[in-house]
Specification:
This protein has helices spanning 2-14, 41-48, 51-59, 73-79, 83-91, 106-113, 116-124, 139-145, 149-157, 171-177, 181-189, 204-210, 214-222; strands spanning 34-35, 66-67, 165-166, 169-170. The chain is mostly helical. The chain has 2 domains: 2-161, Alpha Horseshoe (Serine Threonine Protein Phosphatase 5, Tetratricopeptide repeat); 166-228, Ankyrin repeat-containing domain (Serine Threonine Protein Phosphatase 5, Tetratricopeptide repeat).
Length: 228
């Protein structure tokens, strides 16, 4: 039911009646996923935010789901916060979760930028909230490390996982390392493991104490963190 509601939401946000139906500019023939070695003209126009050129290229049949080592037309537009271009690409069937293996997805890029509008649209378009990159990070991790609290809450509402690790460190540990009390509160409330132990034996509580951050130390202890 949630995805049906989201699809309707995206249709309204994009100003169309169908999320993936054929539009007057572009159709199924240019929606296939294909690997390319260098950025396509559509990618170059997307990263520049040239909406008119993007629309012309789509109408001429430029592949909207081509994947280059630099990303996709959609991910490049999202990275630069070109909302109009991103919307135009989604309107004709751009897929939010494709991209170079291990690299950040469009949702991760929007989350890192704190771009709440694009995060909202990408989730509604079916972006996988818990897709991870080669470091093990998901969109929640990207948003949390950047301090984008509203985006983190949006992602959590869509089922985002807070218990992801990067190079042996939990996301909560990374947030504590940043002395971000509010973010730590949100992650703990969402079920972050306060007693996760890194391979080197460190915990979030140990990091808080090393930083002499009494507020974070108290928060963690009250949440059940134990000294190692």
């Amino acid at each position: 039911m949630r995805r049906l509601i989201n699809a309707g939401l995206v249709a309204g946000l994009l100003g169309m009646s169908q999320l993936s139906g054929c539009a007057s500019s572009g159709g199924a023939s240019n929606q296939a996923v294909e690997q390319v070695s260098t950025p396509t003209p559509l990618m170059l126009a997307s990263v520049k935010g040239d909406l008119e050129k993007v629309q012309t290229l789509i109408a001429d049949g430029s592949p909207v789901n081509a994947v280059s080592p630099e990303g996709t037309a959609l991910s490049l537009a999202v990275a630069k916060a070109h909302h109009g271009v991103a919307m135009a690409l989604l309107r004709v069937g751009a897929r939010p979760d494709i991209g170079p293996p291990g690299q950040p997805s469009a949702l991760m890029l929007a989350a890192s930028n704190g771009d709440h509008k694009l995060v909202h649209v990408l989730l509604a378009a079916g972006a996988a909230v818990n897709r991870t990159d080669s470091n093990g990070d998901n969109a929640v991790a990207y948003a949390a490390r950047a301090g984008n609290l509203a985006v983190v809450r949006e992602l959590l509402n869509d089922g985002g996982n807070v218990n992801v690790t990067r190079q042996g460190e939990s996301l909560l540990m990374q947030v504590v390392q940043n002395n971000d009390l509010l973010m730590a509160q949100v992650l703990i409330a969402a079920g972050a493991d306060v007693n996760y132990v890194a391979p080197d034996g460190r915990t979030a509580l140990a990091i808080a104490r090393d930083h002499h951050n009494r507020d974070l130390e108290m928060l963690l202890v009250q949440a059940g963190a134990q000294s190692s």
